[in-house]
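Practice problem 4.
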């Protein structure tokens, strides 16, 4: 049994990915969510954490004069929980270079596209407008590049005829709820790490696209 891996999760909203992470705990999973921190006091994810008996904190970014000042306070708040891993789960803030450097190699994010395609917002609409046959979601280590950083795992979702952005988003979210707990567990078990050469799983370099998973539990 691996040593417990302390995880701090950062959120800004409903926390559906947080819930997927909470639901994945136990059954030999060494990941342990020790705190959930939000920049919004009304984030429903805080209620999800409290219902699971997880410590919560709120740090309102509007109370700080600059991004750097907020990030410095956020680092202090996170480090009070002595995390091994920090997980961004719908945390709607662009992080400063100092923050990213502080958590280098132990900071994961999930993005609703098959990176490097469709960085930023409105990914489902953009995938449809581009006429793509496949869409999905990506877990990656965080670097200074927005939605950049070495890829860990991608969930691939087929684009169906007549898809709307909303319908596509629902299927992509199923993929998110599958691959994010998987990546966090890999890290907690010591299987996943970031090296000078990129992301490695079980000591072997991951491909540029990360490990792609196509057999997601999607509705028929």
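Answer key:
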């Amino acid at each position: 049994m691996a040593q417990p891996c302390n995880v701090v999760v950062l959120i800004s909203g409903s926390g559906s990915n947080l819930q997927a992470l909470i639901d994945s705990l136990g059954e030999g999973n060494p990941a342990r969510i020790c705190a959930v921190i939000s920049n919004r006091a009304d984030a429903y994810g805080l209620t999800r954490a409290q219902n699971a008996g997880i410590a919560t904190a709120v740090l309102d970014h509007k109370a700080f004069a600059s991004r750097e000042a907020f990030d410095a306070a956020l680092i202090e708040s996170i480090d009070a929980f002595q995390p091994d891993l920090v997980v961004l789960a719908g945390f709607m803030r662009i992080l400063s270079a100092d923050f990213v450097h502080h958590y280098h190699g132990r900071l994961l994010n999930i993005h609703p596209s098959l990176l490097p395609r469709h960085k930023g917002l409105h990914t489902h609409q953009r995938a449809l407008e581009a006429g793509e046959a496949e869409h999905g979601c990506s877990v990656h280590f965080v670097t200074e590049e927005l939605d950049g950083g070495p890829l860990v795992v991608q969930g691939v979702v087929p684009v169906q005829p007549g898809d709307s952005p909303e319908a596509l988003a629902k299927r992509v979210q199923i993929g998110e709820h599958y691959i994010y707990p998987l990546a966090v567990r890999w890290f907690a078990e010591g299987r996943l790490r970031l090296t000078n050469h990129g992301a490695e799983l079980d000591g072997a370099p991951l491909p540029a696209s990360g490990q792609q998973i196509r057999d997601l539990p999607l509705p028929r």
